Amino acid sequence: MLTDLLLASMHHLLVFGLVAMLVAQSVLLRGHIDAIALAKLGGIDRGYGIIALLLLVVGSLRVFQGLMGADFYLHNPWFHAKLGAFLLVGLLSVWPTLRFLRWRKALKADPAFLPAQDEVRHLRHIVRFELILIAVIFVCAAAMARYGGF
Q: In this structure, are residues 79 and 73 in contact, taking their beta carbons and an 8 Å threshold?
């Protein structure tokens, strides 16, 4: 029972950390992107990736070691929707990560480098769509806890 509480607590804290990272990216992407903002974006994105991996590990432990048992999760359509939305967020996050890495490389080559505003705006839209999908994940989690497999 204590294991389940610890896993659930860690899972929730990681989810809020993930949201915080996405909000921070969104805020940075709405302003002027300079060398300082690029460094911050890179650090935040690295933290985002670490949190996402930890979230997958802790989520898997909840499925297979948690109180509800694997049957509850694996036969629950809300769980599958939640996991699908999480994977979509992960896939969408690849594009900004690659851009941030490219920008950092360009900044090293040219200290006056500034990314194009169209590209910044496009990444901002992607990050905001990821946040919308996170809201979908919250709704699926609530439905999963209350309605199970219908």
A: yes
Q: Residue 133 belongs to what domain range?
A: 2-147
Instruction: Tell me the whole-structure pTM to 2 decimals.
Output: 0.90
What is the distance between the alpha carbons of residues 6 and 141, in angstroms, rounded to a whole number? 18
In this prediction, residue 149 has a pLDDT band, given cuts at 50, 70 and 90, of: low
Position 44, amino acid: I
What total of structural domains would you count in the chain?
Answer: 1
- Give the distance, in angstroms, between the CA of residue 50 and the centroid of all CA atoms in the same chain: 10
Q: What is the DSSP letter of 132?
A: H
Please name the residues in contact with 129: beta carbons below 8 A apart, sequence gap of 6 or more.
Answer: 92
> Are 86 and 51 contacting, i.e. CB atoms less than 8 angstroms apart?
no
SS3 16: helix
Task: Indicate if the pLDDT at residue 67 is higher than 90.
Answer: no
Alpha-carbon distance 49 to 130, whole Å?
14
